[in-house]
Amino acid sequence: MGTPTPWHKGRVVLMGDAVHAITPHLGQGAAQAIEDGVVLADALSRHDNLDTAFAEYTARRYERCKLIVDTSLAIGEWEMGRLPGFDNVAATNHVLDVMAQAALIHPPAPADSLAPEKGRVRCHLRRAGNCR
Ligand SMILES: Cc1cc2nc3c(=O)[nH]c(=O)nc-3n(C[C@H](O)[C@H](O)[C@H](O)COP(=O)(O)OP(=O)(O)OC[C@H]3O[C@@H](n4cnc5c(N)ncnc54)[C@H](O)[C@@H]3O)c2cc1C
Q1: Are 90 and 37 in contact (CB under 8 A)?
Q2: Please, is 102 exposed, middle or buried when counting C-beta atoms within 10 Å of its C-beta (0-12, 13-18, 19+)?
Q3: pLDDT above 70 as % of the chain
Q4: What ranges do the domains of the chain cover?
Q5: E-state strands within 8-99
Q6: Ligand 1 pocket residue status of 28, Cβ below 6 Å
Q7: Is 14 near ligand 1, meaning CB less than 6 Å away?
Q8: DSSP code of residue 26
Q9: Does 33 sit in the ligand 1 pocket, CB within 6 Å?
Q10: Which residues of 107-128 are buried (b: 16+ CB within 10 A; e: fewer)?
Q11: Would strands 12-13 and 8-9 be described as parallel, antiparallel, or unpaired?
Q12: Which letter does DSSP use for residue 109 in this model?
């Protein structure tokens, strides 16, 4: 993931490529920027305190964006022959599955509801010796 949290300082908050620029392998850069906007608007509509709204926005976006950034990078490495054994098709399908889940509008569940899916992608990366 490109930019560590926090994604805000004072009244300034970052979104889109500014925090999670993505290689083109999954075609998700603009999609994620739009999702950022939707979640940020939702968080701002429910919290008067900017720090609270920005922190919630980041919490709701971070893992989803990280999955795409990390998987896109892995696909790129695989295309360049640097990640033998990486299952490109499974990883791509997995990301598309996760993107289709309604993990966007609602605040995150108390337990990390995407954990099993993240585990699956981590598995692909680990098999290829590139798990972080
Ligand atoms: C060739 C290509 C193909 C792509 N294909 C896809 C795709 O199929 N699907 C997909 O989802 N994503 C795709 N993307 C990624 C997508 O375009 C980006 O992820 C998305 O545009 C990011 O949006 P953004 O608003 O964060 O940044 P940007 O779109 O880069 O917007 C930033 C804006 O800020 C302006 N700006 C910069 N500095 C200043 C300044 N100092 N003052 C004022 N304004 C400033 C810039 O001019 C720009 O208009 C592709 C990208 C490329 C390059």
Answers
A1: no
A2: exposed
A3: 75
A4: 8-127
A5: 8-9, 12-13
A6: yes
A7: no
A8: G
A9: yes
A10: ebeeeeeeeebbeebeebbeeb
A11: antiparallel
A12: P
Work out the number of other CB atoms within 10 angstroms of the CB of residue 51: 12
Residues 6+ apart with CB under 8 A from 7: 13, 14, 15, 19, 54, 57, 58, 61
Residue 77, SS3? helix
For a mutational test of ligand 1's pocket, the pick from 15, 17, 26, i.e. the residue with the most ligand atoms closer than 8 A to its C-beta, is: 17
61 lines ligand 1 (CB under 6 A): no
Phi, psi of 5 (to 5 degrees): -75, 160
Mind listing the pLDDT tens digit for each residue in 74-122? 999 999 999 999 999 999 999 999 888 866 555 655 545 444 444 444 4
Decide: residue 30, CB within 10 A, 0-12 exposed, 13-18 middle, 19+ buried. Answer: exposed
Q: How many residues does the chain have?
A: 132
How many Å lie between the centroid of ligand 1 and the Cα of residue 21? 9
